[in-house]
Amino acid sequence: MILASHPEGEAMSKIKIATDWLGGCSGCHMSLLDIDERLLNLLELVELTSSPITDLKQPPEEGVTAGILEGAVNTTVNIETAKRMRERSQYLIALGDCAVFGGIVTMRNAFSLTELLERAYVDAESVVEGKVPESKELGKLIHRACPVNQIVDVDVYLPGCPPPADAIHHALSELLEGRMPAMTGDHLRYD
Ligand code: SF4
Description:
Number of helices: 6
Helix content: 25-40%
Largest sheet: 5 strands, parallel
Strand content: 15-25%
Bound molecules: iron/sulfur cluster
Order of helices and strands: EHHEEEHEHHEEH
């Protein structure tokens, strides 16, 4: 699929991307940073509009070419974040096993919400006078954690825990060239 044309000799315009995280460990964002010095070249061609690691946290209302989501959908706030990213992104990328399959986050589906919350915030060995936190910012746990595509449509899947930096670089480079990234071979990792 061709995203945009870049006639020969014409400078490529910057594409806008935004990233956000749901229920994850931030390891996928660390892998994004592991692109290392190639990140500097990419940033000459890509405008990072918002991410958890920049001042702006939410994608601009006018939208971006590519929205990147890390993590499984685990809370009511994650649902809002995923829907907002979907609405504002031409193409949505699920980054990492948690976003693609649900990953390690879905291990919690074997337990009730009460069991989970009490184990984490009340019964954990390191907790003294624990209490289950309540906050609008945290939202509420949803009944079952799930991959992003159970909430919104996803265009590109980048599996791996985390996905290799080379795979992320490949996906962004393909978008820059105006192509829908085809993830094959070494770019697909399931560990
Ligand atoms: S896929 Fe792995 S690295 Fe990425 S958020 Fe999930 S646990 Fe962390």
